[in-house]
Amino acid sequence: MTEPVASPEDPWVKVESVYSDNSQDPDDEDSDYHQESYKESYKDRRRRAHTQAEQKRRDAIKRGYDDLQTIVPTCQQQDFSIGSQKLSKAIVLQKTIDYIQFLHKEKKKQEEEVCTLRKDVTALKIMKVNYEQIVKAHQNNPHEGDDQVSDQVKFSVFQGLMDSLFQSFNASISVSSFQELSACVFSWIEEHCKPQTLREIMVSVLHQLKNQLY
């Protein structure tokens, strides 16, 4: 006996076919859900890490500007052109640059002063050594230099020489005219300023001065 074949029009066949098409393995649905959750969680973690890193960077920059305003004296001075407004980052950087340049100039100035002081110290050391040698020499020869003359005596020698020359100059120079004056001056120099004449005058001055002193 032949079994009856189900007709495509059979309603049981349609129901079974629909059920077969819409059915899905539950394990596959859980797997897809976990994958989506993992993807979203990974993106969230990356976004959160990026946000935290950016916030740390901004905080570090802010702390840096705050430190500059605390360290740089000109940033602490009130700028009346901006009133009580907070200094912008550009102004803070410019004031910092200006202050660094000022420090460089001050450092160079101090180095030059130190160099000058070192030279002074070296000169003083040399003078100290020389004076020590003079003192030592005087201690070894206490009577040396007793015959040394004073500056007053030296001036007296020069004064005597000039007085003698002026006497001859005054007697020889005519002031009738500038031309005659010039001619007389040159004639006087040729006659009275010869080495031998000056020597004779100086010997006479020294002899007179010696007689006055002794």
Helix/strand layout:
Layout: H1 11-22, H2 26-71, H3 73-76, H4 89-140, H5 151-172, H6 178-192, H7 195-213
Helix pairs in contact: 5-6, 5-7
Molecular structure report:
The chain contains 7 helices and no strands. With 214 residues, it is an all-alpha fold.
End-to-end Cα distance, whole Å, is: 182 Å
The biggest beta sheet is recorded as: none
Order of helices and strands: HHHHHHH
Q: Total number of helical segments?
A: 7
Number of strands: 0
Class based on secondary structure composition and strand pairing: mainly alpha
What's the pLDDT, averaged over the residues? 78
Q: Which blocks of ≥5 consecutive residues have pLDDT under 50?
A: 1-8, 12-16, 18-23
* 3D shape: elongated
Q: Strand fraction band? A: under 5%
Binned, the helix content reads: over 70%
Using only C-alpha atoms, the radius of gyration works out to 56 Å
Main location: nucleus
Pfam family, one: HLH
Keywords: DNA-binding, Nucleus, Transcription, Transcription regulation
Protein name: Max-like protein X isoform X4
Short description, anyone?
Keywords: DNA-binding, Nucleus, Transcription, Transcription regulation. With 214 residues, the protein is an all-alpha fold.
Key descriptive features of the protein:
mainly alpha; 214 residues; elongated; disordered N terminus; single chain
